């Protein structure tokens, strides 16, 4: 396992399909809009899709702000008036093809995502 330094994280690291491996939440984040999603797909044109049987689509962007939040941020634009902000708390490579990403959202909701470079779909693997 190898951790990727947060200073080195860029948009290319996020591209691809990420399966939700775990989610952590508290009472105030139990209704988070991402809580039921099983996978998130980051595309090159800054579009993302998230699905759990139904698909949600929006835009995403990576932001860096050195003054208040050191970690890279991922802003999800779900609709014209709905935005969700998260920070990347961890990004690591498990081996040559598997990567793990942890996103922490403003509400206290946390998603643990895993990407397999050899799989480009959202179906669970056994």
Residue ranges: pLDDT <50 for 5 or more in a row?
none
Distance between the amino and carboxyl termini: 21 Å
Q: How many strands, what sense, and barrel or not for the largest sheet?
A: 8 strands, antiparallel, barrel
- Name the overall outline: globular
Number of strands: 9
List the helices and strands in order. EHEEEEEEEE
DSSP strand content: over 45%
- Please identify the structural class as seen in this structure: mainly beta
What is the overall pLDDT average? 88
Helix count, DSSP H or I runs of 4 or more residues? 1
Protein name: Lipocalin-like domain-containing protein
Organism: Adhaeribacter terreus
What does this structure look like?
This is Lipocalin-like domain-containing protein. It comes from Adhaeribacter terreus. The chain contains one helix and nine strands, in the order βαββββββββ. By secondary structure, it is mainly beta. It has an eight-stranded antiparallel beta barrel with strand order 2-3-4-5-6-7-8-9. The longest helix has 4 residues, at 11-14. The model has no long low-confidence stretch (mean pLDDT 88).
């Amino acid at each position: 396992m190898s951790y990727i330094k947060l200073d080195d994280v860029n948009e290319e690291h996020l591209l691809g399909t990420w399966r939700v491996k775990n989610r952590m939440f508290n009472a105030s984040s139990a209704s988070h809009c991402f809580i039921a999603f099983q996978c998130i797909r980051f595309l090159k044109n800054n579009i993302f899709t998230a699905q759990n049987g139904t698909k949600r689509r929006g835009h995403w962007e990576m932001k860096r702000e050195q003054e208040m939040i050191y970690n890279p941020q991922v802003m999800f634009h779900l609709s014209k008036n709905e935005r969700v902000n998260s920070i990347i708390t961890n990004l690591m490579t498990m081996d040559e093809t598997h990567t793990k990403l942890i996103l922490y959202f403003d509400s206290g909701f946390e998603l643990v995502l895993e990407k397999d470079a050899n799989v480009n779909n959202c179906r669970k693997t056994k």
